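Reviewer comment 2.1 asked that we show a complete input and output for one of the modelled complexes. We chose the zinc ion case, as it is the one discussed in the main text.
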Amino acid sequence: MPDLLDLSARFIDGDSATDADLGPTNRINLELSEIADGIAMVESFSHVVAFATDEGTVLFDGTLEALAPTAFARIRDWNPAPFHTLVYTHGHIDHVGGGKVLQREAAERGEPAPRIVAHEAVPERFERYRLTNGYNAFINHRQFKRSGVMGTGADGGPAFPRRFAEPDVTYQDALSLSVGDVAFELHHSRGETDDHTWAWVPSHRAACLGDLLIWSFPNAGNPQKVQRFPQDWARALRDIAAMQPELLLPAHGLPIGGAERVQRVLGETAEALEHLVDTTLAMMNAGATLDAIIHTVKVPEALLDRPYLKPVYDEPEFVVRNIWRFYGGWYDGNPARLKPAADAEVATEVAALAGGVAALVARAQTLADATPRRDGRPDPEALRLACQLVEWALGAAPEDPAARAAAREIYALRRDSERSLMAKGIYGEAAERG
Ligand SMILES: [Zn+2]
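Response of the prediction step:
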């Protein structure tokens, strides 16, 4: 069993993580580690965190339905006490799948199922998933296809379940739970989601973070999902830091031990989000357009190099868009895009003005061929324009073999140039069209 606290200390103290090491879609080995006396974690997608109490085991998060039976078996091997309570830190499917498994297991044994506790907005999320099942199958296919972590639907794409285990107990702002000899203080905060819970466990000086820490840049941008809340997220991290924890138990990535390390990770993550919120708001208040803002506002490079802030899942540019949407709306300040001409119409016109589709393809190819390399990867900045030109070429002549070949090549290069799974997924799909 690897010593996870030791591993995380080495990453944090030495800044030695590479892109491939951590992040929310890595470390899904279904191994159990005892983190402290009475606390265990099964690394999964998401992790399951277990607390031993003298009235039974309390679980934070239930991972994906398909992985939960193994994860739960590992916890019962560690501590044979019955499961008492499952807390959903939020309603994402990789955190709630085990709820159904617990209910099924209890029914098979003829026992009452463990109690499920969550924020009061979780049932509404489940309802929204039922309304958007088709959409979610598409976007998860795009985002997670290559990571192999999601289940597969009938169409070959990852699908959301239609039924969820609803919480038995919900709360609004805060809830104190005492199970046997262990007290848990649950707190609601918006952050990655509107239904997020973090928990303070005073007897262990431990905080269960859910997705408020994911060992990569906060998932507060996500181009294909509903509103996220970077400003509340930062506030929650500050609130957690104020409890002076000695142990952080996130639902993705490694647990973190040691008061100083905890303060550093929480403080720097909050700082990165606050920087984006403050600078975006300052530009909005000065009348800037979204275009000006996304090409200006950046997180300081030194922060992005931290092993717990690398933009390998989400990325700052997407967070800036979410800040704009939260405080502003969807109009980006460019009047041509308020009620735009159809994409195909614009593409056809631009191609004609350029002297034909071939001219667009040639220029896109020239730009792509001239892409410099940075740190061994093509520079994504140089590919922004090449993608726009080849997209116009394809829009003007969707069946043109040269435009299609150039689009495949340029979007594949763009995929390889990007660091975030979200950008890679979207550009990867664009490369595979037709
Ligand atoms: Zn998660």
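The pocket of zinc ion is lined by residues 24, 46, 92, 94-95, 211, 251-252 (CB under 6 Å). We note this here for comparison with the apo prediction described in Section 3.2.
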